[in-house]
Write a structure and sequence with these properties.
Layout (H helix, E strand, L loop, with lengths): L2 E4 L4 E4 L4 E11 L12 E15 L2 E5 L3 E5 L5 E18 L13 E2 L10 E2 L5 E4 L2 E3 L4 H12 L5 H18 L11 H13 L6 H8 L3 H12 L3 H19 L4 H7 L5 H12 L3 H8 L3
Helix pairs in contact: 1-2, 6-9
Length: about 290
Amino acid sequence: MCGKITRGDDMTINTDGRIKALSYGRVTQKAPWHSGRKLDANLLVYVNSGRLKMEVDGTAYRLIKGDLLLIPENVFYRPLEAHDLEYFFIHFSADVLPAETEALNLRSHPLLHDGDYGFSFYGGNPNLTLNTLTSCAKNESVRDIFLKLSSLNIKGNRDRQMLDALVRELVISVSDESPLGSSLSRLTVKIMDYIDEKYFEDISLSSLSEGFKISKSYIARLFKVELHTSSSDYLNRVRIANACRLLSFSDMSIGEISEAVGFREQYYFARIFKKLSGVSPSEYRKRNLLP
């Protein structure tokens, strides 16, 4: 994992879209090499050795070995100082628009209680945030990606796809951690585990408050601060994730599935399902039903 130095002008990339490498290289510099420019591509600069001072959109950044600098497209930048500098660079294009539908949280859920299936991952937010300046000095995998890139000899479509795959891997490796990947309090984990197990029951903020002997406002704050969502939204995500399981692996009707995962009204179930998955329950079943 890389460490964030400053937020600056962060950029959110939708990994469901295309991430395409445009050019890359490995350069040695002893002095500033141009007086400033804007590019119609995003630029990543990784310092392999030496020091670099770079101005980006009026802000000066000092980079040392292991630092990675993001310069979004159409943002003015210029090198100010370079001392025994060797750096890798990548120009790339990416879809920075938010996802059209709200994605399901990425978390493992039991599939079947009889042990036929262990667990499955559902959903996952496609949006990842890249910080302007990030320290990757302790992350050997990031440097390894740049070394792999510099060793590529593009001769055909396979090599071209490998190049794009490595850039995608790099973007994921240096992005901010998702809320569910960060450290959660023991109490939050207990509440999440309770919802994961009892999602089909009538669960509300009031019932959680009574069950865990803490105030509703405190639970609401836990979910907002640690998970960036609400308890009701999290409950809906768990219910829909389990509905996906039943739509794929059972012959239950949609009405039966709606009731089985805790929704009182089928029309409300259908509305929430489409909001979170992007398709109706019947369309999801058509695409994912397994024999």
